Amino acid sequence: MAHPSLAGIQAMQERLGPAISTLQRSEMMRNVTKLGEQVAHIAKVTQPHFAKLQALQNQLPTSLQKFDLIFKQTQGSTSMGKLGKQLAILTQNINTWVPNQRFIESLASGAQKFAELGITLRRAYEKRFEHYPRLAENLDSLAKQGWFVSVDLPLSVYEELAFSLERLTSAPDRMALVDNLFVECFQPEIEALCKKLIEDNPHRAFAIQPAVAAHLRGEYALSVPVFFSQAEGIVRDRTERELFSKSPRRPWEHVNDWAKKKRVSVLQAEDPFDYFEDALWSPLALDLPITWSPKERKQHEYTGLNRHTTLHGMDLDYASEVNSLKAFSLLCYVSSVFSSDPDMQAEEGQE
């Protein structure tokens, strides 16, 4: 069983989610690790002294017996009388210290557990450094399959979904497995994600709430178009750009161009969350199948979920749980990246 302090901090980390700024999160991990290691060092240094003190306490009765014998043999000696008084004071001090040893030892034990927590967080931090350089690539591959990973998801869920294709790269039916994983991970989070969507976009609650309710009732023919339209509206609200419609003559009107400028150039990152910040906008910088025009769909022989074929009545088979969750994942993703971006928050505050 995990130590209560470890479980508590892990739970807190879970709910903080990736939307917290890079600096805050990386500094938290560094500081907790550093503090844990320092406390462990203190415990290691002081423990031998506690052991010596215990040994002294154990030896004290024998020493006192010997001193008592010597004292009796030299009664009347002034020097021995002074030594006796000094030894009595020393004995009193030792007896005062030793009962407190249990408290100090328990403190040292707690310090050791805290150090173990710091080491656990450091290992998790180092593990992220192994994977996060490939985060954008993984999110792009998922987006091309119609799945988007919201940064409002708990961190463990975010990472499980973000690297799902990478883990299943050798599976012959990996796309079906990824679909099942997203359904499994999104279903318990739908209500929490809906609440966050409405908190960040209160003027869209009139559409988001009934669309989520329709999804939960299994009425996917109703939920998918609304999820698409609200995702499109949020992008317009925040960027005055288009999420779906694009003109070859005016590429700057599409969110692709805007997202490319938002991406961070990561050459030699000093922190795994530098890669996270870069990957945040990567799917929006792509030309996604979900946005393809009729010409592009024909060119790529694409028959999957698409906003145009859905909203214009061309696709009569879109009404499925997987497609509804794909559209919902897009809505949650675009809302979460804009809501977590400090620049967007500053712009809203100036309005």
Structural domain count: 2
Give the class from helix and strand content and strand pairing. mainly alpha
Largest sheet: none
Please tally the β strands and state the result.
Answer: 0
Which consecutive residue ranges, at least 5 long each, have pLDDT under 50? 1-6, 8-13, 15-28, 346-351
Mean of pLDDT: 76
Q: Determine the fraction of residues in helical runs and give it as a percent range.
A: over 70%
Q: What is the distance, rounded to the nearest whole angstrom, between the alpha carbons of the first and last residues?
A: 50 Å
Rg over CA atoms, rounded to whole Å, is 32 Å
Number of alpha- plus pi-helical segments: 16
Order of helices and strands: HHHHHHHHHHHHHHHH
Percent of residues in beta strands: under 5%
The shape is: elongated
Walkthrough of the structure:
By secondary structure, the chain is mainly alpha-helical. It is built from 16 helices and no strands. Helix 8 packs antiparallel against helix 9, helix 9 (205-216) packs antiparallel against helix 10 (220-239) and helix 10 (220-239) packs parallel to helix 15 (321-340). The two termini are 50 Å apart.
Give the helices and strands, then pairings.
Layout lengths: L3 H13 L5 H52 L4 H54 L3 H10 L10 H8 L1 H4 L6 H13 L3 H11 L4 H12 L3 H20 L15 H8 L9 H8 L14 H7 L6 H5 L9 H20 L1 H9 L1
Summarize the structure.
With 351 residues, this protein is mainly alpha-helical. Helix content is 72%, strand content 0%.
